[in-house]
Amino acid sequence: MRVCESLDILEKVDNALGRDRDLIKGYITALQFENPSATHHQVMAALQRFLEESCDAETQLKVRKVFAEEEAAYELGLDEQIMAIASALINDDLLYIKILQTLQLNHQQNLPWDTVLNKIQSLVTEHNPTVWPSLKDFLDRFHSQGPTYQLDPSEMNDDVYAAYCEQFLDDPEEADQNLLEQKFNNISLGSTV
Fold first, then answer.
1. Which residues contact 134 (CB under 8 A, 6 or more apart)?
2. Domain definitions of the chain by residue range
3. Separation of alpha carbons 154 and 184, rounded Å
4. Mean pLDDT, to the nearest integer, of 27-38?
5. pLDDT tens digits, one per residue of 146-189
6. Checking phi first, is residue 151 left (phi over 0); if not, alpha (psi -120 to 50) or beta?
7. What pLDDT is attached to residue 147?
8. Is 43 exposed, middle or buried (0-12, 13-18, 19+ CB in 10 A)?
9. CB neighbours (10 Å) of residue 172?
10. Which residues lie closer than 8 Å to 78 by C-beta, 6 or more apart?
C-alpha cells in the first residue's frame, strides 16, 4: 500500500533529483519500504538525513517543493495547474513553499482570509515585493472561486506564462507552442473594414 501511495510523488522526486540513479536509490532506501512497521516520524527523519547528507541545497529545495505541493494538494485540494501558476507567479521556490505552508495554516486553524493574506503579503514583501500585485490578484480570485479556479493564460504576462508552461508541460515544444498561441490569441487576421 505504501509503495502504491508513493508512486506519483516518486516520479516527481525523481525529476527533482535530476533522475540521478544513486540519489533516487537513496531516497527509496530512506522511505523504508522494507520495514512495514516504520512510522511516519521514522521515515521523515530518514528522508531528512538523506536530503542533508546526499543532496546539495538546490536539490534539497526542489525535493522540499515537491513535498510542500503534495501536502497542499492533499490538504487544500489544490491541483497541479493551480500550483504551477502560483509557482510561476512567485518565481522563488523557498517563498513559494512558505506561502503554501501559510495557506495550509489557514486551513488548519480556520483563520480569516484577511489574516492569511496579510501573512502572505509580509512574506512576499520581505522576499520579493514586485510579485505582490499579481500574486494578490491571483490569490483573491482563487479564494473567491475555490480549488476549481482556472486562470486564463491571456491573463498572465509572457514571463509568467513561459515559466508556467515550463513547469506544467512535460514537452518543451508543447510549451513553446502554447506560448505562441497565447501571444497570438488576440490577433485577428481578417479584415476589420
1. 89, 157, 160
2. 1-55, 56-151, 154-183
3. 10
4. 90
5. 656 666 655 666 666 666 666 655 555 555 555 455 544 544 44
6. beta
7. 58
8. middle
9. 10
10. 69, 72, 147
Closest CA to 164 of 81, 69, 77: 81
Residue 78, judged by CB atoms within 10 A of its CB (0-12, 13-18, 19+), counts as buried
Q: How confident is the model at residue 41 (pLDDT cuts 50, 70, 90)?
A: very high
Amino acid symbol at 35: N
Question: In 3D, which of 191, 190, 168 has the Cα closest to residue 179?
Answer: 168
**Dist CA 169 CA 178 (whole Å):** 9
Q: How far is CA 50 from the centre of its chain?
A: 22
pLDDT of residue 88: 87
